[in-house]
Every structure is written in structure tokens, then in C-alpha cells.
Amino acid sequence: MPRRLVFIRFEGGAIVIVRLATESDVPVIHNMIQEYVDDGTLLPRTRESLYRSLPSLVVADAEGELAGVVALHRLETHVAEIRTLTVAKGYQGQGMGQLLVQFALKLAEDTGYHKVISFTTQIEFFSRCGFSVIARDTVPTKYYLDCIHCSKLFRCDETAMERVLVESPVLHSVNRYGRQVIQLHDVVECEPKAKAIQD
């Protein structure tokens, strides 16, 4: 997965770095997720599963404090799934979730995925991020890989949504060694409270 940093300045002056997660982030990510597991919002994740997901985990780092996390999980050759989208309770309402989703979408596009899906209860949020509701049976791989093992299999309250990836503001150039260079501009298109200051 491409390695890229995005620097964002939020209202109040806090600088947030969106980056790939590291092993040292996993205990904090697990605790963040567990808060939402306890109130029934999220399905549980073990620390072991998070360590296995490290190549696909992205975090929002607010000056050393993790403010959120999202996972981009490969389902099929050209289909990825957004999972484990979590924003720390002290950072909600600031556009952090949209920031993480938009970053994950750019990573998906760079990796060569044609579309990204999400199974979610937050239909309005994902609609704002450009996702559309689809029939659950159009994603059979999800069922056989995950749903069949889920404790909510027969009482699932999640809706399947997808975002088809289209042309984005990615500029391509060729450097003096003949290699293609990808420059990403205006990555973040979320709340006006956040402003990109460097890419």
C-alpha cells in the first residue's frame, strides 16, 4: 500500500497527521474501538486481528494522540472494504471521520481498486462521502469471508454501501529516471473546519 502523509490543521490550531498505523499504535486503537464495542456501536476486534491488519490500518495522529482509525481491507482483486472506522470521542464533530474515509479512498485508488464498499449503520455519513446504498447480495465475498462468522448474522442492522472510484485530482509526471511520480493535491474534501496545509 502506498505510504503517504497528509497534514491537516484543525480549528484551534491542532495539526493532524494521517498516516499508516504502526505496531505501537495497536493497543491505543484497540482501546478506542472497545469504547464503542461496549455501547454496542461496533463489533469487537481483538488486538491480534489488529496486528494482522496493520498494512491496511490508517490513523489520524493529533500531535501524538490518536484521534481516529480506519482500515482498508481487500475483499476481491478490485474491491476493497472500509472497516473499523472509529473516531475518538474527544474528536467527534470535527470532520475527522470524513478525513479518514477520503484518505482511505485515495489509497484504494492508488492501489488499483475499482470500488470501495462499507457495511454500516451510518448511512447519512457515508452518503456525504459519496457512497450509495446497494443490495447486500451484490457483495457475496463479504458474506462468505466475514458475515457467516458474525454474531449478528441473523440480526444484522448494517446497510451495504459502495463508492465507485472515478477520476480524482491526482497529477502524474515522469521523473528523470523514467519512473512515474504521483503527486496528490487537495486530498481532503471534508468539513470546512479542516484545511490541508501540506501534502
From TrEMBL:
Protein name (database record): GNAT family N-acetyltransferase
Keyword Ribonucleoprotein included in the entry's annotation: no
Superkingdom, taxonomy of origin: Bacteria
Membrane-crossing residue ranges in chain numbering: none
Organism of derivation: Sulfobacillus benefaciens
UniProt entry keywords in alphabetical sequence: Acyltransferase, Transferase
EC number(s) stated in the UniProt entry for this protein: 2.3.1.1
InterPro entries: Acyl_CoA_acyltransferase, Bact_Acetyltransf, GNAT_dom
PROSITE patterns assigned: GNAT (PS51186)
Gene Ontology molecular functions: acyltransferase activity, transferring groups other than amino-acyl groups
Pfam families: Acetyltransf_1 (PF00583)
Segments forming domain N-acetyltransferase: 16-157
Keyword Transferase: yes
